Each structure stands twice: as C-alpha cells, then as structure tokens.
Amino acid sequence: MPLKRFVLFFVCIAAFAISYAQSSTDSIYFKFTRLSDTVDQMAGIIPVVAEIYNPTADSFTFIIYANQSASTAIQGNGNDYIYVNKEFKNGPGITRDTVYINVLQNQLISATKKVVMGFINLPANAEIIPDSTYTLYITNNNVLMVSFLGAAYSFSKDTPLVEVKVVLSTYWPQLVTANVTLAPGSAVYGTDYLFNDTTVVFPPYSSDTQGVWVTIINNNIYESNKQINFNLTNPTGGAILGTSGFTLTIINNDSIGTAVPLIDFENGLKVFPNPASNQLNVQSEKILNRVEIRDMLGNVAVSTGNLMAGKNNVNISMLPSGMYFISILSEDKIYSRPFIKSE
Fold first, then answer.
1. Comma-separated ranges of CATH 2.60.40.2030 domains in the chain
2. Distance separating alpha carbons of residues 214 and 162, to the nearest angstrom
3. Which fold has domain 258-341?
4. For residue 328, what are the CA distances in angstroms to 18, 187, 222, 280, 317?
5. 282, 266 Cβ separation under 8 angstroms
6. What angle do CA 9, 14, 2 make, to 5 degrees?
7. Residues of CATH 2.60.40.3080 domain(s) within the chain?
8. What fold does the segment set 28-139 form as a domain?
C-alpha cells in the first residue's frame, strides 16, 4: 500500500508539472523591442516596434496606445507630439507591428518630456511583462535669444525710413527687452540719418519681430556710400544675445549733375557754390580753426589756417576737376562734406 500511494503521488506531481508547462507555453505576451529612446524635438517621425507572441490557434485584436496619464509630453497639433492609438489583429506565431510617433518642433523652452506607450484591449490569457511599456524622451534644445534679423542691409539714400528688425527666438512667459544703440560708422548723424538709441520690448509669450526705425536724409549730394552701425545690448528676461551687430549701408544714387549748390552745415556754417570752379566760399558765424580739402584718396590738396567769422574765400583753381572733400575744424567739431571741382 505505501508503494501504491507513492506511485499515485508521483503521477499527480507529473500531471501538475505538465499542466503548468502547458499553461505557461500557452501564454500570450506583448512587448516592445526597445524599452526607451531619447530624441530632440527636431527628430520628426519615430518608429516604435512591438513584438507579439501568440501560441494559440486563435486570432485577436489589441491596441498600441499613448498613455497620456503617464506621459508629460502633450499630444496634438501645436504641442509636443502627434500619435493616434492604432489597432492591430494578430494570428498565431510571433509577429511584429510598428507604430509611429510624430515629434513636433515648437518654440517653447521646457524640460525634457516623455511619451509613454503601452497595450490595451488584450486577451484574457495575455501575459504582462516589464518590456510591455515603452518611453520616448523628448529633449528641448530651444534657447531664449534676442538677435538682429540679419547682420547687414543696404538701401538707396532716397529711402525715407528704414526698419532695423530684432527677433526673439522663442515664446517666453516673461517680458524681454534689449537696447539698440548707435556704434561708430561713416554716416553722419543729422546729415545722413536720424536715430535715437531705443529699447525693444517683447511682451510675455510674444515671438513677434520688433522694429526700430531710422530716418534717412536725402541730401542730394554726390558722395560715397555711408554706413550706420548698431549694437544690441543688455538683454533682459533671461535672454542671451545672438547677432548683436548690424550695419545699414546707404547707397548713393545721386549723379554729379544732381549736386546741390549749397553745402549747409549747422550753426550758420555754409560752403558754396557746389560745383565750384575757382574758389569756395566758406561762411561761418564763428572763427574756424582750419579748413582742409582732400582728394578721393585722402591726400590733402588745400589747407588753411584760422578763418575769421563771416565769408572767406578758399582758392581751388589749381585743383584738377573731380570729387573732393572739404573738412572744417570749428572748436571741438569737425565738419566734412563732398563737393565737385568743375572746369
């Protein structure tokens, strides 16, 4: 009798082991081939591959879905990504299915976000294993930067107003400002242009281009091209500087025949006629320290000492015809303009 009981016990254990092995073999499992990936927000379309093992003879359907409650990335146009839950039907054996997450580029600065993917609508005999969850990490590479839109721009001198544009790289919940100031250049303030140092302001959540305006003075003088230089400084709101230097080039489109007969400086200082053949008349309300006439290469062709207040004559009869510059030193200022020496 003890032997029979032992044999019966062994048969029961063997039957249980066979039954357990069959039940384990019959389990359906779902898993992703990768547990995670990390991409930046410019990555575009990201494939995600799922592997399904079905040891049964039956087919079944399931859904690969985005678990929004476990995700920190926001789904939908204008946000972090786009994905539509997708249903699959699988038969016996091992199959692989692929879904695609569309990572969207936006202008917001934020921490790394994640999209968590999983399986739903599984059959009752499905086995949930650790690899059944996939996480896509989306890094943010946006930088808050304020910058000139470009580094240079050219325009003809008969353009009355020119806009210098400043841009912000991304949306930002705080107010951002920056200063636009003049830098040394060949153009003369008050003669060639007018501009006052100013501050551009970007309201919170604004990515609009801001502009400052430069007034161009069309003086109808035949002269070389001039440059106005600007600096962008002192950004606020946590922004950094991008392109911080900008040059406006004033293109002279006057011909010699359009030159004005009078060169009118400030404070009653005038030079005439223009063009001039034998002499230039220099008229001033104050004593002038020095007058120089230079050719286009910068060489001094005529130089005088002090000139009294009133009308003074400067002999230019010996000069060949062409373009020259007259420079006048008065107290602590230097005035310079081109003129034409005619036959």
1. 28-139, 145-254
2. 5
3. Immunoglobulin-like (2.60.40)
4. 111, 17, 19, 13, 19
5. no
6. 20
7. 258-341
8. Immunoglobulin-like (2.60.40)
Pairing of strands 93-103, 45-54: antiparallel
Question: Phi and psi (nearest 5°) for 13?
Answer: -65, -40
- What fold does the segment set 145-254 form as a domain? Immunoglobulin-like (2.60.40)
Distances (CA, A) of 34 to 54, 71, 98, 100: 19, 17, 12, 14
Q: Cα-flanking dihedrals φ and ψ of residue 170, to 5°?
A: -160, 165
How confident is the model over 94-148, as pLDDT tens digits?
999 999 999 998 767 777 899 999 999 988 888 777 788 999 999 887 788 899 9
Tokens of 194: 């007018």
Phi, psi at residue 256, to the nearest 5°?
Answer: -60, -35
SS3 content of the chain, % helix, strand, coil (to 5): 10, 50, 40
The residues near 185 (Cβ < 8 Å, ≥ 6 apart) are 226, 227, 228, 229, 247
